[in-house]
Amino acid sequence: MDKITQPTIVKITKIINEGLNYKTFVFNYPLEARAGQYLMLWLPGEDLKPFAVAWKTPDKFALAVLKRGDFTAKLFEAHVGDLLGFTGPHGTYYNLTGRKKILLIGGGSGAPSVTFLAQEAGQQNIKVDFVLAAAAKEEIIFESWLTAQGVKVYHRFQDKKYEHAWDLITDLINKNNYDGLFACGPELLLKKIVDLSLEKNIFCQVSLERYIKCGIGVCGKCCVDNSGLCLCQAGPVVNNHLANQISEFGKYHRDGSGQKIYFKQ
Amino acid sequence: MPANLETTITGLKLNNPTILASGVLGVTKASLKNVINNGAGAVTTKSISLEPRSGHKAPIIITYEAGMLNAVGYSNQGAVKAAEEFANSAEVGAPVIGSVIGQSVDDFIKVISKIKNCGFSAIEVPLSCPHTPGYGTLGGQHTPEMAKKITDAIKKISKLPLWIKVSPNENMIAVAKAAEAGGADAIVAGNSMGPGMIIDIKTAKPILGFGMGGVSGPALRPIAVRCVYDLYKAIKIPIIGCGGITYGRDLIEMMMAGATAVAVGTAVYYRGVSVFKKITEEAEQFLTENNYKDITQIIGLAHG
Ligand SMILES: Cc1cc2nc3c(=O)[nH]c(=O)nc-3n(C[C@H](O)[C@H](O)[C@H](O)COP(=O)(O)OP(=O)(O)OC[C@H]3O[C@@H](n4cnc5c(N)ncnc54)[C@H](O)[C@@H]3O)c2cc1C
Ligand SMILES: Cc1cc2nc3c(=O)[nH]c(=O)nc-3n(C[C@H](O)[C@H](O)[C@H](O)COP(=O)(O)O)c2cc1C
Ligand code: FES
Description:
The complex is a heterodimer of chains A (265) and B (304).
Chain A: E1 8-19, E2 22-28, E3 38-43, E4 47-52, E5 55-57, E6 60-66, H1 70-76, E7 83-90, E8 101-107, H2 111-123, E9 127-133, H3 143-148, E10 152-154, H4 165-175, E11 180-184, H5 187-200, E12 204-207, H6 231-234, E13 237-239, H7 240-245, E14 252-254, E15 260-262
Parallel strand pairs in A: 8-9, 8-11, 9-10, 11-12
Antiparallel strand pairs in A: 1-2, 1-7, 2-6, 3-4, 3-7, 5-6, 12-13, 14-15
Chain B: E1 7-9, E2 12-14, E3 18-20, H1 29-37, E4 42-44, E5 61-64, E6 67-70, H2 79-85, E7 96-99, H3 105-114, E8 122-126, H4 144-157, E9 162-166, H5 172-181, E10 186-189, E11 193-196, E12 199-200, E13 205-206, E14 213-216, H6 221-234, E15 239-242, H7 248-257, E16 261-264, H8 267-271, H9 275-289
Parallel strand pairs in B: 3-4, 3-16, 4-7, 7-8, 8-9, 9-10, 10-15, 15-16
Antiparallel strand pairs in B: 1-2, 5-6, 6-14, 11-14, 12-13
Helix pairs in contact in B: 3-4, 4-5, 5-6, 6-7, 7-9
Bound molecules: flavin-adenine dinucleotide, flavin mononucleotide and FE2/S2 (inorganic) cluster (FES).
């Protein structure tokens, strides 16, 4: 019974303002994690919520957080030197094996899981194009950081001809011979990406956001229909075929009480 | 010939004695089905309250050297949505037990009437949760008076077998006897114990969102075994043993103490959802090696 899940305590070493409602929190800690995996971040005495690892170095790691509600608002009030806790890394990760030229897509609070992947891919000399999907120009984050990793960054605010991120994405996929698509962001966008990858037979993995309360496969909050798989462990990263088998994918998710919330088309 | 693992409890025939304990997975019908596919003989839903509840803040579950602490706070969809979620439960492939909670006698009655067409095989009523204000031990329900009152009221409106889930802390025998007198069909012994608390010493804060939480898993096992052993002598209705069962030997032990079936929760953390298959296989091997033909032969064997 040596399996213990309790938070590891770390000090915030740096906070970076990334733009409107986005902050990166950097910790001095040699985290063993792969791109796509997440930590359960503990604000002592408050709550605990899932966040993907946004990037890491041998002795540091970072979480990039979009302000959405109570927890993230409280986190935004934290200062350098404050103590936070985490459990994990939890869950599955992206697999770059055999990839040569890939397209990454990151949107909203999903962007950080793919920025870490861009970093991993860069270290393996894989050619990376990256679409930052955002509703507004102010929500474009990590652009210069990604460029510094040798990644070619695209977003629809560079070129007026694209009204939606999806138009830009299909254009890039049609013009380039990508051998891998990796995405995390709004689920309806992920659904389109999965459908296209299946149609074009391109290797594809997406990271899905489900309500995660324990992260260890016990509470059942993250179970998806119809298989009942726990996405806190069988996910968040799933390949296109598995995503396609999740009957609720692109349709609904659940809130903390287990009630269904339908995605707005 | 491998030993026969079938057991019958309150008229329900189970392929094997393992039942998914309430609150571990079991939030959705798909999840219950997945647990059955992984070998459970029956499954229990997450407890259902009248209104939806989002539960306590996280962490809701932490583990330590000897087991688990949880303070989930009964997060669930509420009776109306649960009735949709668990509709046609009979089709999942094994008996489904609906766990029902309330803050008053009236709540229990209302929830049961809302979920009465789900196809549940039995109703389980925990009077024993140690960490949710208004419910269980914190709601003053774990007394002989309340046990009698609640069982009486439910038996008047529901024909389903009624299982009353007791606390290993205190009052256990008196509560179980009162439930039996009220017409309960079985006793589940039992819930998590405590509550306990773990404090993070770097931040000087209790870790669980609710501060304290029920203790389950290996730490609870010997206590649960003793509870079942005591109950077996005190009551006539069958007992579902629950607390820390992780391996086949634990199931055997619990049945030798007097349980007719067992519920398994925390072990899902230690051995994954296929723990039901694993425990069953280990138990079967033991029985076969020791020349027991039928698992029911060992019920109460420790009483000599
Ligand atoms: C695997 C995974 C990785 C994530 N990585 C990041 C990340 O790198 N950066 C980032 O900014 N956000 C990330 N998120 C989302 C982040 O967990 C939520 O934005 C956060 O929990 C919102 O909490 P809140 O109290 O501020 O907002 P709330 O008002 O509580 O919720 C806002 C929205 O966030 C979602 N949410 C709330 N709690 C949870 C929860 N426990 N689990 C899943 N979703 C929840 C809800 O669907 C809700 O619509 C990730 C989520 C998952 C599942
Ligand atoms: C995470 C978790 C959630 C639980 N939720 C409930 C619940 O909703 N209703 C209930 O009657 N018991 C609940 N319990 C108690 C279990 O059903 C069981 O009685 C207890 O954990 C002891 O068994 P175990 O050691 O096999 O887990 C919960 C236990 C855990 C660990
Ligand atoms: S979040 Fe608790 S089981 Fe997945």
